[in-house]
Structure formats: C-alpha cells, structure tokens
Write a structure and sequence with these properties.
- Keywords: ATP-binding, Hydrolase, Magnesium, Nucleotide-binding.
- The chain is an alpha/beta fold.
- It has three domains: about 120 residues, no CATH class; about 200 residues, Rossmann fold (3-Layer(aba) Sandwich), CATH 3.40.50; about 70 residues.
- The chain is built from 15 helices and 15 strands.
- The strands form four sheets. The chain has a seven-stranded mixed β-sheet. The protein has a four-stranded antiparallel β-sheet with strand order 1-8-7-6, covered by helices on one side. A two-stranded antiparallel ribbon has the order 2-3.
- Strand 6 and strand 7 form a beta hairpin.
C-alpha cells in the first residue's frame, strides 16, 4: 500500500543511516578545483599514484611522444591499492558530467580507508604524498607549454621540448649569471616572501629589438627551473574578470608568459600615446571599437593581475613579459613589484658571437675573430641574424669570410641610417 517513491525514499534514508553508523569504511574526496583555484592536493595525488601501480591495478592509461619511452597515467575508474604504515588504502579516479556553466568534466579522486585510520591519513599520509610528488615534479622529464582556449575556457597543453639552456644562450656572461643568481634566490626564499608579506612570485620584463633571444631566454628559464609555461594572449581575456579566472586556473611552479605585451592590448600602452593614437584613428575603426561586445582588459585589471590581490592566488610563479618597445608601455607597469627584473636583450656582442661560433661551427678561435669582433662594435646585428648566417655551411673559413662581408654591409647600413 506504500507508494513506490515513498518506499525508495525510506530505503535511501535507512541505507545512509546504516552505512554511516555501521560501515567500517571512510571515504576522502579530492576534487580537481578548490576554492576557485587548482587543487594542489589533487595535483600531488595525480603525480604520486602512477608510482603505485601494481598487480591489483585493473587499468592504466599510457602514451608518449616517443614510442621508445612510454609514460603512464591514471584513467577514470581505475583502482589502485596503496599501503602505508600498515594501512591498506584504495584509490580511484572518478569523473562527473559538466554542468552547463562548466566547460569540461569535473574529475576527483576517491580514497577509501577504515574509519579508524582517518586521523593517521590526515596527519601523515597526505604529507607523505605531497613530499613524494614534489620530488617527482622537480625531476619530471617532460615540460609542457599551455595555450588558453577561449571557446572551451581551458588550457590546452603540449610537450615543450625547446633545446635552449643558459649554456647555449648567446648573451653576456655577466648578465647570464645575474639572471641565474636571481632565479636561485627566488626559488630558495619562500620563507622570506612570507615573512615580508609578499606573494611568492617574480616579474621579468624582457625588452629589445626582434631576434635578440627573448623567447630563447624564456625557454632557458623554463628548462633551468623545470617549470611549465602558460603562454597567454591577452586578447583571449574578454574582461578583467575573465583574466582573473584565467590566472587562477594556472598551477604553482610555473611561468606565465605574455609575449609582445605592447601589441597584446592597449591597456598596457602608455596612456598619453593611446590618446594621440585615438585622435588619428579612422571613423570606421572607432565605430568598430564602439560596437565591440567585449570590453577587454583594462589597465587597472592588468595591474591587479600583476601585483594585486589576485596575483597572490598561487605560489612560486614567474611572470614574464616581452616587448620590442619598452618605451610604449605605461609607466605604471614598470614600477618595482610589478616587473621586478628588467633585462635588455640587445644586439650581438663579441661574447655572444663566440658562443654562437662554438655552437654552430665547433670552433673557439680563428684568425678572423678579431676582425669580426671589431665590426660587431659598429654593426647592429641580432643573434638570430648571426645564427642564420653561421648555419649556412659547415666550412668555418668560408662562412667566416662571408660573415665579415655581411658585417661590413651592415656597418655601412647602420652609418647611413645614422
């Protein structure tokens, strides 16, 4: 006589009560997102569990960019049994369908244990996982470069295999050592940043003519620190709120890269210059700007993104801006605390040429080196131009003779330009 829906409801109440009071098990849930940012505990478990794959594991996700070097990961619904201090723990990765206001599935880990082990797991086990994961991440073989997909609202990643290192960079040795010293100090001074009340981040501005090695320096920093790169085009952000959401979806121990910031958005440009440019805009361009539905990123939003409250949503991050025209940037962006280190990437120097000659030709000295170094003092030649010329042949004598003629031509062009 009891309706079926009432029966189901009563059964669910009794089932929940029974499991709550009589079941010996307890379940931890670790979701991918935590309080509007990436859940670092989820990332730690994601790095840790592939090292605990054993005979009891019922499925495994494998793949590789190199068929001779397979990598493994945890697929959805895979179960892994781990043992820690006499406890037997069951892990599984689950996924739920995305709701209409989410752009992708929501993943979470389930950890099933005995109720009596709950406190030990909270105090010891998760700390143990965090320490192991930190070691794994610091020694990871693959780095990733991420590009923001505006339509899907997620970061798309691909393996980053740029060969640039500080050993291969064609830049002044003194400047190179200063950058390395600054990076080491940043990584090792977490307590210092907390003690002085500053977010654990560092801002770099790389500026100079095109082809002077700004992108190569970014790659060298990533390879040196073993940090993933998030390559952000500011046009991808429709508004300041959108920019904040993009920022909070990046992970710790990463580089946030904004290339050619003077071209990315007018919010970064000197406000006096923008006013002059707007007066020169055509009527059609002005109409297009007024009809745009996306307000875009404002200067205040960009500043808050660099050193405001939202910039503290994460630890151990490096923000790198590159530009060919530092003078076009608004002075507010250049103040200490926003872009902490300004690195000028200039034309090729004698020291830079010797590094390139060693890399491309395999020689450390030659009778033409003195002539070339004297010409480099007066000719404006980028490291990219030097590298392009040196890689034309594997005959050092012929290449250097041709390069001398090239430098003489560039010197004449420079003098005529002046």
């Amino acid at each position: 006589m009891v309706p079926k829906r009432v029966q189901d409801y009563m059964f669910s109440i009794l089932s929940d009560s029974f499991s709550r009071y009589f079941s010996p098990n307890f379940t931890f849930i670790i979701e991918e997102r935590w309080q509007a940012v990436d859940n670092e505990t989820f990332r730690a478990v994601e790095a840790y569990l592939p090292t605990r794959v054993g005979p009891a594991t019922d499925s495994l996700l494998i793949g590789s960019n190199d068929p001779h070097n397979l990598e493994q990961s945890i697929p959805v619904d895979c179960k892994i049994i781990d043992k820690f201090e006499g406890m037997e723990l069951e892990w599984s990765l689950r996924s739920t369908e995305a709701k209409k206001y989410f752009h992708r599935e929501r993943r979470y880990f389930r950890l099933k244990c005995k109720k009596s082990d709950r406190e030990r797991i909270m105090k010891s086990y998760f700390t143990y996982i965090a320490d192991i994961a930190k070691t794994i991440i610091s020694k990871r073989e693959n780095l990733y470069i991420n590009t923001y997909d505006q339509e899907a609202g997620i970061w798309d990643s691909t393996v980053f295999k740029h060969p640039a290192t500080f050993d291969t960079l064609a830049m002044e040795p003194k400047l190179k050592q200063e950058i390395i010293k600054d990076l080491n100090a940043f990584v090792e001074r977490r307590d210092f940043f907390q003690g002085v009340g500053r977010a654990w981040k560092r801002g770099y501005l790389l500026y100079g003519p095109p082809g002077t090695g700004k992108s190569s320096l970014v790659a060298a920093i990533a390879n040196y620190l073993r940090y993933n790169i998030y390559d952000l085009q500011l046009q991808s952000a429709r508004s300041d709120a959108d920019l904040r959401r993009i920022l909070t979806s990046t992970t710790n121990r990463s580089i946030l890269l904004v290339e050619d910031i003077d071209c990315s958005t007018k919010a970064s440009r000197d406000r006096t210059r923008i006013k002059d440019e707007q007066e020169e805009d055509s009527e059609d361009e002005q109409t297009h700007k007024l009809s745009s539905s996306d307000p875009g990123v404002t200067l205040s939003g960009l500043l808050n993104f660099i050193d405001g409250l939202w910039s503290s949503c994460g630890d151990e991050r490096i923000i790198i801006f590159t530009t060919n025209h530092k003078e076009k940037l608004d002075p507010a962006l250049l103040r200490p605390g926003r872009m902490d280190v300004h690195v000028y990437m200039g034309y090729c120097t004698p020291a830079g040429f010797r590094k390139l000659a060693d890399a491309y030709l395999g020689i450390n000295d030659h009778c033409l080196f003195a002539t070339i170094e004297n010409l480099l003092e007066d000719a404006s030649v980028t490291p990219a131009e030097v590298a392009q010329h040196l890689m034309k042949s594997d005959q050092p004598q012929a290449i250097l003779e041709s390069f001398v003629e090239f430098l003489k031509t560039k010197k004449n062009e420079t003098e005529e330009g002046k």
